[in-house]
Amino acid sequence: MTDSYRYRCGECGHRTAWGSESHGERAIEAHYGRSHPRVVPGGMAEFRKKDSGGGVGCLIALGIVVLLLVLASRH
Ligand SMILES: [Zn+2]
After folding, report:
1. Ligand 1 centroid from CA 27, angstroms
2. What is the pTM of this model?
């Protein structure tokens, strides 16, 4: 599945579109660059699980602080 991830901004609640994990990371990083240039990127990663019998299925918020974005922004 390539459209199961999205990221939620920790500052304003902005959510990226569903997409691949790497796509979501770029999207939220770009959002921080535009909207919160002085804030260290962070927030929530959400993973959408598709059940075989439940259509869209449930949504699991992993609650991961996106530390990778911090590292990526400092190169
Ligand atoms: Zn934001």
Report:
1. 11
2. 0.64
